[in-house]
């Protein structure tokens, strides 16, 4: 399939839990065959549910997810595992493995440039469970990219990272997205505006807007969704976002 065709398509996708709670509500979205695609929105908006549905961890109640031109439901599990990389929101390891052992579960030969780019060379012999949150996040990103998947899902990979490592990881994912598809959940709107090619804004399980960062990150669109009055500051060509302090958070 060419990089110009969509890599991932949601066609009128709704997802309900067994107790009938609506997690996603009629989502129509095309994710291109390359580029860094940001998913933003308030807590509980449905961002993780979208990612979990895209990789088959949540089943659609109606509508269809199409991955690489084929219905997600038709993908054999081993082919799906080879095609995608996933950085979950909560990174868990149930075994007392070293970082090198964890990565070797994915690939026989760990790419040296990936170790360098994720800055995890000094962590390879450490037990994963003893790492700090930021160190675990960098290992999780290396693990997600190690087998060169066609599409990567990263659910808040920047959440535990300090400022330099946030940019390190965003640059790494943007570089990867030059030829592949990367879908990333972000809360930091500055990072979203600076690194993402396109953004999809979610609220209450619905897709509110899907466009370039400049077109989505406007007070007219953000304020009703976040229930606050946003301010944008422009410094050195970058845009930074915050809220006025004279209003109550929702
Ligand atoms: N299995 C489930 N059963 C019941 N409710 C669920 C389930 N999974 C998610 N939810 C609820 O659905 C809503 C969307 O959850 P989701 O994790 O997709 O939000 P999110 O946008 O990723 O939020 P956050 O920014 O807080 O991580 C939340 O209210 C959540 O509590």
Can you walk me through this structure?
The mean pLDDT is 93. The protein contains 9 helices and 12 strands. A hairpin with a 2-residue loop joins strand 11 and strand 12 (238-243). It is of the alpha/beta class. The chain has one domain (8-243): Rossmann fold. The structure holds adenosine-5'-triphosphate. The site of adenosine-5'-triphosphate has 11 residues, from helix 1.
Instruction: Please report which band the strand proportion falls in: under 5%, 5-15%, 15-25%, 25-35%, 35-45% or over 45%.
Output: 25-35%
CATH H-level name... which superfamily?
P-loop containing nucleotide triphosphate hydrolases
Total domains, how many? 1
Structural class: alpha/beta
Overall outline? globular
Would you tell me the overall average pLDDT? 93
Low-pLDDT segments: none
Biggest sheet overview = 6 strands, mixed
